[in-house]
Design goal:
Blueprint lengths: L2 H13 L4 E5 L5 E7 L5 E2 L7 E5 L8 E4 L3 E7 L19 H16 L5 E10 L5 H11 L4 E7 L3 E7 L2 E6 L2 E12 L10 H18 L3 E6 L3 E5 L2 E12 L6 H8 L7 E2 L1 H11 L10 E17 L2 E17 L3 E5 L2 E10 L5 H16 L5
Antiparallel strand pairs: 1-2, 1-8, 2-6, 3-5, 4-5, 4-16, 7-15, 7-19, 8-9, 9-18, 10-11, 10-17, 11-14, 12-14, 13-14, 16-17, 18-19
């Protein structure tokens, strides 16, 4: 499919106010589009459904689905897409600075009182301009090759775009993979950087939590050495974790609830941190730090069977794969404005002004992408 026809199909679907999602997986060149044929709002019941899931931070609220069975899918493969000329952003991101610093100060006190080990505070910054959705999506695709890039829309919910570096989980048959991601600093041309003790400790909290959570449901667990990765103009610390799902009745829903929300977006202990954020952040995160991705997608696996005195024959089997990502580095587009969602992990070693500045740097990575 030609690039112009691909994006025109998405633009036309948006004009008719019908749900859709466009996305590209990390380090791939194929961009997928799933256009829903009606405007109904489909909701997840037990994660046995099949389609593209879009789930909020607060798991007690509805997770939404664009079903494969109710949609038309198509794709395009490109290394680079054509960009239009954009207007330089002059927005100064200072929304709620004093409030955020005060929130960090209170959280540090609670951590030092041993109420939490770590907590992830967030905020949203408003941009008082209407964005060009398609051109912003194209710039995300061109700028974030190693991230999960998406544009999701439903007329009854709204429009979200993002480029997240963090995998929640990938399930292929009984094979399970995830990652621990934390720590942030600006990319200045090299991956060989020094990390503070605060960043290392924050990342270790996430790793330890995940290993503990999956210990009774995942066998043969292995994890990689700590590495520095790049996501756009930011660097993070990452540990890859994998294993096999234990035989038994562990459902996908149970696996999701074990991890979501992770300490990378919430804190530890999980339940207490989540409620503290809901009570104290002063705004609704909605789908920021929720998760999204392919749910129970049927994949054909070609294998071979051989028997004595019978020629080997190739045949196909069907397998349902799920690949879910944490909704970071995202923005919400509304009629005449947009909102960027950003946050940072707070530990006992955090310094409030530095934590504020980290959110400014994270917001800038999205501000620089936006096309008006």
């Amino acid at each position: 499919m030609l690039e112009e026809a691909f994006f025109k199909g998405i633009q036309d679907h948006l004009k008719t106010e019908l749900p859709f999602v466009v996305y590209r997986k990390p380090n791939e060149i194929e961009v997928h589009a799933l256009l829903q044929k009606d405007d109904l709002l489909y909701k997840i019941n037990d994660y046995s459904e099949s389609g593209f899931v879009f789930s909020p931070f607060d798991f007690r609220k509805d997770s939404l689905l664009i079903p494969y069975s109710k949609s038309t899918g198509f794709s395009i493969s490109r290394e680079l897409f054509s960009e239009s000329t954009s207007v330089k952003n002059t927005f100064q991101n200072q929304d709620n600075k004093d409030d955020y610093i005060e929130l960090v100060q209170k959280a540090i006190i609670e951590i030092r009182r041993k109420r939490f080990q770590k907590i992830v505070l967030s905020r949203k910054a408003s941009i008082p301009r209407q964005i060009n959705v398609i051109q912003t999506l194209i710039r995300l695709l061109n700028s974030y090759k190693s991230a999960f890039v998406y544009c999701w829309y439903h007329p009854k919910v709204g429009l979200w775009l993002g480029a997240t570096p963090e995998t929640l989980m990938k399930v292929e048959g009984n094979r399970f993979t995830t990652m621990a991601l934390a720590g942030t600093q600006r990319f200045t041309g090299s991956l060989s950087v020094e990390w503070s003790d605060k960043d290392k400790k924050e990342q270790q909290f996430v790793t330890d939590y995940i290993l503990t959570q999956i210990s009774e449901t995942i066998d043969n667990i292995i994890y990689s050495d700590l590495e520095t990765i790049r996501a756009g103009q930011l660097l993070h610390l990452k540990t890859d974790i994998s294993g096999t799902i234990s035989s038994g009745n562990t459902s996908l829903q149970e696996l999701i609830l074990l991890l979501h929300p992770t300490p990378a977006v919430c804190g530890t202990p999980k339940n207490e941190s989540r409620q503290y954020l809901i009570d104290n952040e002063g705004y609704n995160r909605e789908f920021y730090t929720g998760f999204l991705g392919e749910l129970n997608k049927e994949v054909k696996i070609e294998t071979r069977s051989s028997k004595r005195n019978i020629e080997s024959r190739a045949y196909n089997i069907q397998r349902r794969n799920s690949e879910l990502f944490v909704n970071l580095r995202c923005l919400q587009s509304k009629a005449n404005q947009a909102f960027i969602y950003i946050g940072g992990g707070i530990t006992a070693d955090s310094e409030p002004l530095s934590e504020w500045q980290e959110t400014v740097e994270k917001a800038k990575t999205m501000e620089d992408i936006i096309v008006y």
